[in-house]
Amino acid sequence: MIALVEVTVTDMTALSERGAFAGIVALAWALGTVLGPIMGGAIAERTTWRWIFYINIPVVVLALLGIWFFLTLKTDTRSIREKLQRIDIIGIVVFVGSATSFLFGLTAGGVLFPWKSANVIAPMVIGIFGLVGFWFVEEYVAKEPMMPMRVFKDRTALAGYIGTWVHGIILWALIYYAILWVLSSSSDFTNI
């Protein structure tokens, strides 16, 4: 969803206006990241957890109306068959399969199976080899790759991708573990 918003903003705005719109999107992201868990926790504590989803309905309706009336896109005149032929099915299958395998091993380790178990190590090794296979498919097999490898050959772009990756890991780790740390340090949590 984040990438879709960024693509929409870059498609709809001039280069000189992009910074301002990126700032608005970042402000919404920051407010949602800070206020979302707090409001969600308060709503779930005072009512039923379903209201966490119901409260989004007016926002979604407004967003859909805004998209319907204000988003104008250039229509692609190719046939559905031509569009479907452009999809990198082999790359998608290899990437999803290898990522799923690796993530299964990562999440099952220490929870479902011991870390040294073959049930953890095998999926992670298969996932790593699968990701190497994905690179090969994207570089040498796919006519229109899902992830063109040429984007990683520019040092500036590569530095940006690495920075974004590190930022994502830190951000999501803090969002996930800060809540658990606060809950585990409160006296109410220990009585549950």
Tally the helices.
Answer: 9
Query: What is the helix/strand order?
Result: HHHHHHHHH
User: What share of the residues lie within helices?
Assistant: over 70%
Question: What's the story with the biggest beta sheet?
Answer: none
Q: What is the residue-averaged pLDDT?
A: 87
Task: Work out the strand percent.
Answer: under 5%
Structural class: mainly alpha
- Total beta-strand segments: 0
| Chain oligomer state | single chain
Radius of gyration: 22 Å
Domain tally: 3
Note the gap between the termini.
35 Å
The rough form would be described as globular
Unreliable parts: none
Describe this structure in words.
With 192 residues, the chain is mostly helical. It folds into three domains: 1-74, no CATH class; 82-150; 154-192. Helices cover 74% and strands 0% of the residues. The chain contains nine helices and no strands. The protein has helices spanning 2-12, 18-46, 51-54, 57-70, 80-85, 89-108, 118-141, 155-185, 187-190. The mean pLDDT is 87.
What secondary-structure arrangement, pairings included, does this model have?
Blueprint: H1 2-12, H2 18-46, H3 51-54, H4 57-70, H5 80-85, H6 89-108, H7 118-141, H8 155-185, H9 187-190
Helix pairs in contact: 1-2, 6-7
